[in-house]
Design a protein that fits this description.
- The chain has eleven helices and 14 strands.
- It is of the alpha+beta class.
- It is globular.
- It starts with a strand and ends with a strand.
- The relative contact order is 0.20.
- The protein binds NI-FE active center.
- NI-FE active center binds near residues 48 and 429.
Length: about 450
């Protein structure tokens, strides 16, 4: 991920945020068996794998007329739930918290990002301990994923038609044992920690807010058809129902063969590194022309739940509270599993069709669109959450929420720490590093994301 920030008098005037890796999964999937989609698409990413597995399963099930038994739906929710929990624990403690406390003088805390640490040495020590405890707890979340998913990441249990794993009392108890440790940690450590940060860094509850437009496509479908996360759109405080037909993607400033704004059914993904206006591999999804924010804060806004602010720590607070909500829901899902009942139904109504799979992933709304002919994939399109949050500029010059959120930010620290704090609050999926190029002094600053 590359962030190019333009500063004047210490204030970010504008920023371009680019992804320098080409994904190419749309081409990889063409011509393959529709039933293999959860296995391929989970490889898009290691931190949100199960969500791609379930989104692709939903899409294939809709295309081929498949029905998932209640146990299968609940098992998938338990797999996705544990995947969310490992993600939220790791993102909060390992990726974001180091922006706000000083760890010991050893890797991975060195080199320290100097400046604006407002904690006492005792408080630094306490958060360092929580940092290491969170690794243990997030490992429990991955172990819970493995109970019903076979392994984590890239679980084998998720398939079109349900989940391959059988349900018995031993597995329920194993999952519950892991979940209890996670819920205790969330309640006793993680929630107090995020509230402590909000208290010590109060302006960051608001700094880095987005453009006021939010999306949730709905997530964690339950056997009665309800979803734990509702779907909807919020445009400047006005709530609207979400409709697939209003989604477009365009590539005006991305490295692809040019098309206008177009729905994913018609879209093609043809890379072209020579596009004169190109600066990134990220396309530009829009909803009725609007760039939208997705993720835990967006889900809370769409659901009309409590939030504490629209800025960087506001996002972290919503993420932590969401972890609690998911862990509590998982306790109930465990009660609803029926040992011995079927978990999968592979009966298909037809061999060809079109299907859409929507899920809420950790970072926000995820969509898969598939056209299948005689059991093989004809066309596949994927829009991931980070594509929404960090899209390229569109034909009207409108930027993503991610670029918008750091405009106007006052910078006092040489490593652009303020911008890093805001960028990381979206939990961007580009692994490794952000490279900040200081144009005046012509040096590149590498900052962990
Ligand atoms: Ni690579 Fe993912 C999530 C998906 S991309 S982490 O959450 O889909 O934003």
């Amino acid at each position: 991920m590359l962030v190019e920030a333009h500063l004047e008098n210490g204030v970010i005037q504008d920023a371009l945020i680019a992804d320098t890796l080409y994904r190419g999964f749309e081409q990889i999937l063409e011509g393959r068996s529709a039933f293999d989609m959860p296995y391929y698409t989970q490889r898009i990413c290691g931190i949100c794998s199960s969500l791609h597995g379930v989104a692709s399963s939903f899409a294939v099930e809709q295309a081929l007329g498949m029905t998932v038994p209640p146990n299968g739906l609940i098992l998938r929710n338990l797999i996705m739930g544990s995947d969310f929990l490992q993600n939220h624990l790791r993102h909060f403690y390992l990726m974001s918290m180091p922006d706000y406390f000083k760890g010991p003088d050893i890797p991975p805390f060195t080199p320290h990002l100097e400046g604006d640490i407002r904690l006492t040495p005792q408080e630094d020590q306490r958060l360092t301990e929580h940092y290491f405890n969170s690794i243990e707890i997030s490992r429990n979340a991955h172990a819970a994923f493995g109970v019903f998913g076979g392994k984590a990441p890239h679980g084998h249990g998720i398939v079109p038609g349900g989940c391959t794993m059988h349900v018995d009392a031993d597995k329920i108890n194993r999952y519950r044992g892991y979940l209890i440790t996670i819920l205790e940690f969330i309640n006793n450590v993680m929630i107090p920690d995020v509230e402590f940060l909000a208290e010590r860094y109060p302006e960051y509850v608001y700094l880095g807010k987005g453009n006021g437009n939010f999306l949730s496509v709905g997530g964690f479908t339950q056997p009665d058809g309800s979803t734990l996360f509702p779907h909807g759109i919020v445009l400047q405080d006005n709530h609207h129902p979400f409709e697939d037909r209003f989604i477009t993607e365009e590539v005006t400033t991305a490295w692809y063969e040019q098309t206008g704004p177009i729905h994913p059914w018609q879209e093609k993904t043809v890379p072209d590194k020579n596009q004169p206006q190109g600066y990134t591999w990220i396309k530009a999804p829009r909803y009725q022309g609007h760039a939208l924010e997705v993720g835990p804060l967006a889900r809370a806004v769409v659901a009309k739940e409590k939030i504490i602010g629209y800025g960087a720590i506001g996002r972290h607070w919503s993420r932590v509270m969401e972890a609690k909500k998911i862990a509590e829901a998982a306790m109930i899902w465990l009660e609803r599993l029926v040992p011995g009942a079927e978990t999968i139904n592979t009966k298909v109504e037809q061999e060809s069709g079109m299907g859409i799979g929507y899920v809420e992933a950790m970072r926000g709304s995820l969509g898969h669109w598939v056209k299948i002919t005689k059991g093989r994939v004809d066309h596949y399109q994927i829009i991931t959450p980070s594509t929404w949050n960090y899209s390229s500029r569109d034909e009207k010059g409108n930027c993503s929420v991610g670029e918008f959120s750091i405009r106007g930010l006052k910078i006092e620290h040489p490593e652009l720490k303020e911008a890093g704090r805001v960028i990381r609050s979206f939990d961007p999926c580009f692994s490794c590093s952000v490279h900040l190029i200081d144009g005046e002094r012509l040096r590149t600053l590498n900052v962990r994301v």
